[in-house]
Amino acid sequence: MNFIGLDIGRVRTGVAIATDGRLAMPLKIVPTSEAVVYIKSLLDEFGPSRLIVGQPRGLAGVDSQQAKFTRSQARKMARELGLSVFFVDERLSTKQARKLTGRRRVDDLSAQIILQAYLDGSR
Length: 123
Hints:
43% helix; globular; alpha/beta; 4 helices; five-stranded mixed beta sheet; Nucleotidyltransferase, domain 5; 5 strands
C-alpha cells in the first residue's frame, strides 16, 4: 500500500512517499497553491491510497489557526484527489528535521517524519 505524507504550510508544502508501506522517503517541497497538481502527478506513478497529513498543535495540545488551515487544506486536497486523509500529530517534526540536517527549509523531511510516524504506529 502506498501513502503520501504532507506537511502543509501556508506558503510551502512538504511531500513524502512510502511505496512499500514501511519506509517514508522525502520527495519535494512545493508551493501550497500547486500541491494538488503535483500530487496528481504522483497518482499515476505511485497510486497512493491515502494522504497522511501532519496536524499542527501547540505543546499543550490546543488547535491553532495553522491547525484549522491545515485541516481545511487537507480535506480540500483529499476531495480533489479522491483520496482519504488521516491526520498525525506533527509536534516538533520541523525542529527534529532541522536538527537532523541543519537546513532552514525542511518541509519535505518534516513530511517524511510525519509519514514515518504514521507507518510505525499502524504496525
